[in-house]
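Render this sequence as a predicted structure.
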Amino acid sequence: MADETAATIDARPGLLDRVLRVFSDVRAGEGGTVLLMFANLFLLLVSYYVIRVVRDAMILATGGAVAQSYAAAGMALVLMAFIPLYSWFATRTNRVRLILGVMAFFVVTLEFFALSFSRNAYYVAVAFFIWVGIFNNATVAQFWSFANDLYRRDAGERLFPIMAIGATLGAPIGSKIAEVLFEEGLPPQVLLQIAAGMLLVHLALYIVVQRREVHRRVDQVAVAQAPIPPGNGFALVFANPYLRLVAIIIIILNIVNTNGNFIFSSAVVRAADAAVAGNPSLDKVAFIGAYTGGFLFYQNVIAFLVQAFLVSRIVKYLGMPGVLLVLPLAALGGNALIAAGAGLSIIRWAKTAENAADYSVMNTGRQMLWLPTRREEKYKAKQAVDTFFVRFGDVLSAALVFAGTHWLSLQGESFAVINLVLVVVWIGLLALLLRRHRELSARAQAEEAAAEAASA
């Protein structure tokens, strides 16, 4: 079946197209846009990881791992207002203006936090933690909504693995930058200003990609200027059985992930307290920031290597089942080790493996799930799933943390056992989701073929 690459000006693959074939099947004329999309996601993730290390250091130093878990619950409450506003705005504008408006909001509010860290550190840290959780999910979801709008299913399955390399490469570089700057003694405010500058370049790249694709492909001219079709993000999710399954799986995934973060963060705080007790001259914030930055660096180096050289091949040879099963299997093994009483070193590397699978294979699979959906679902329902339902999983995890630490006196091993049960449920739901994905993909493929025949 022909895809949108049929509209390219030159049907012969260029040098860039051929070079990118090391990573996936890039066809004639696709390389330039794919490289720009890669760079765009790269910048977004570098800036996010600089911001994230600042966030983690501030919240852990002022309130501990329990405060971190509780702050995650506040995100869901804010998102209950954010999603309807996003849906309202999207219906009244085209995709680039939507992206410009949302990104401008986040840059302005980031500047506000940079100015606010000098006072009321605990309350600012909690508010900043909530903001970062929304910023990360909303901006990454928006990038992939834009990518889903640019490509049909067949091209997306070929090219998304290359774009996602930008995320897995940007993550270790961003975390390493934060680690080095913390060790050099720079204050959090300076790190946030660096991140804001990168976000402005990230925003400009959207405009470059839009202009390139409108010039290169006839089918993008009308799409680029059209507003997003009507619909509320929440209503679109609840009305579609396929999207309901996606949302439930995302909730479970994030309960498991957030429980794992609590286990890891608790172990790091204990190590920091022990280090400061042994040497009172140590700065607790700097210790946690450096340790967290190092953890994120190695985690994301592994994710990058998997993304660059394995994901496209997993997609090609194992399809969606192979892509979606890697993470739950990694979580199953990691939590089994923690439940058996592993120490900080094992916890760190178990969490490294799980997060590397999440940020590479699973991240690509999550984006590919939206390729056969309708345009309003790609933007509005995806924003709801990737923000609210992700954070709702965090709320449930926070409730588990509260009940476990205050009522049941549970330790990390007990939370790992809870995760093991959830992973088994997760795998069962994936079987149902994959069946519906096959049905939806077949229907979308038939609709694309009919549209191409009518156009011809």
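Summary. Residues 1-10 have pLDDT under 50 and may be disordered. The first helix runs from residue 15 to 20.
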